[in-house]
Design a protein that fits this description.
Blueprint (H helix, E strand, L loop, with lengths): L4 E11 L4 E6 L4 H4 L5 E5 L6 E12 L2 E6 L5 H4 L6 E5 L13 H4 L3 E4 L4 E9 L6 E5 L8 E4 L5 E5 L4 E4 L7
Parallel strand pairs: 7-12
Antiparallel strand pairs: 1-2, 1-6, 2-5, 3-4, 3-6, 4-5, 7-8, 8-9, 9-10, 11-12
Length: 174
């Protein structure tokens, strides 16, 4: 059985001449993912080429992380990895607290009201500030997308196994 892999970052550029890479983080656990000793899989999404790497060091710099990977000491060795994504295996996912979910668990969930009315399917997750917002694609003919604030007043239950989210609609949401 092949393991599932989840994207945690993207190589956006090289940094300096000593083989460091600039990584755009796509994880809520950057401090864990990019910690020294972490093993990641680098993937070229176009060609399917992969490379297992080990983080030697990482530091945050503005809105990116600067990663030094084991065995790379020169810009010429890492130039070709621009645009590659960094992945972590399912076995290495961080255990979440109750009420916390991974993006891949939420996207694709059907959304229904307490009364059983079908509202649509979650297609995207936005993080504008205080709380996340789940973007719900409405059934055909129902108009524009629904933006669901991820707050206790709205979320009744989340069943990731059945891929169903039950919500209480507050006034003005639809």
């Amino acid at each position: 059985m092949s393991e599932k892999w989840f994207t945690v970052g993207k190589v956006v550029n090289t940094h300096g001449i000593r083989g460091e890479l600039k990584i755009l983080s796509q994880t809520d656990f950057a401090d864990v993912r990019f910690a020294a000793g972490s093993k990641l899989l680098m993937l070229n999404e176009e060609s399917g080429a992969t490379l297992e790497v080990k983080v030697v060091s990482a530091r945050e710099n503005k809105n990116v992380y600067i990663l030094k990977l084991e065995g790379f000491t020169d810009i010429n060795q890492v130039e070709k990895y621009k645009g590659w994504v960094l992945k972590v295996s399912e076995a290495n996912l961080v255990d979440l607290d109750e009420g916390e979910y991974y993006y891949h668990e939420i996207i694709g969930c059907r959304v229904v009201t307490e009364e059983g009315e079908e509202l649509g399917t979650i297609s995207e997750i936005l993080s504008p500030g205080a709380n996340d917002v789940w973007v719900v694609d409405r059934p055909k003919g129902s108009g524009k997308q629904l933006l669901l604030p991820v707050i206790d007043e709205v979320l009744i239950s989340v069943n990731t196994k059945e891929k169903i989210v039950t919500v209480r609609l507050m006034e003005g949401l639809i």
